[in-house]
Write a structure and sequence with these properties.
alpha+beta; about 45% helix; 3 helices; three-stranded mixed β-sheet; Nucleotide Exchange Factor Grpe, Chain A, domain 2; about 220 residues
Length: about 220
């Protein structure tokens, strides 16, 4: 090994080699602290000089995170299944409620028709004391029954479509035949062959009519 000499005396300085920067010895000026020699880190050390992380601990950490994620996914799936079941139950309850309401409304309507049926049966069975049919009484009973039936329909929102004497309206009338107009305006409904009816603003069936036409 080369030894350094003092410029003044030419003697060998035994501390000279270790005091040089980059040397492997101790520097007296730094209290004996070993300097970084610039060599790559040894086994088990990080570039900063510290120990590397334990791979087993890292694996344990990842396994714990995976288990937590699986648990959260399971909870979310259970929540989804519960909410889906609740929606299905709500749907069934709603359908059952509407079905019950519709059944009650139909029952009430049928009860009204039964009253009309009762009056028709009474009218057909009407007789005088001598066993002869009273035509006048029968007609009166039939008129009353017809009026009752019309009241039932009106109560349910069913009304007749005006026809005779009205201008022909293809949205309300169905022309079955035509008749010479004569002194009437062309396209006027002169005869109602079958009544038409509305349900609210909706047409249930058109009135079947005869309409004037020019020859």
């Amino acid at each position: 090994m080369a030894q350094s000499q003092s410029p003044a005396s030419g003697k060998v300085d035994p501390q000279g080699a270790s005091a040089q920067p980059g040397g492997n010895g101790r520097d007296a000026s730094d209290g004996g602290v070993i300097r970084d020699n610039g060599l790559p880190p040894g086994p088990g050390q990080t570039p900063g000089g510290g120990a590397q992380a334990d791979p087993g601990a890292r694996i344990t950490e990842l396994e714990a995170a995976l288990a937590a994620a699986k648990a959260e996914a399971g909870e979310n799936w259970d929540k989804f299944l519960r909410e889906r079941a609740e929606m299905e139950n709500f749907k069934r309850r709603t359908e059952r409620t509407y079905a019950d309401q519709l059944r009650r409304e139909r029952k009430a309507l049928l009860l009204k028709f039964l009253g009309v049926l009762d009056n028709l049966e009474r009218a057909l069975a009407y007789e005088t004391g001598g066993g002869a049919v009273d035509a006048q009484g029968l007609m009166t009973g039939l008129r009353l029954t017809l009026s009752q039936f019309q009241d039932v329909l009106a109560g349910e929102g069913v009304t007749s479509v005006p026809a005779a004497g009205q201008p022909f309206d293809p949205s309300l009338h169905e022309a079955v035949t035509t008749v010479p107009a004569g002194d009437r305006p062309e396209g006027e409904v002169v005869t109602e062959l079958q009544k038409g009816y509305r349900y609210g603003e909706e047409l249930l069936r058109p009135a079947r009519v005869a309409v004037t036409a020019r020859e």
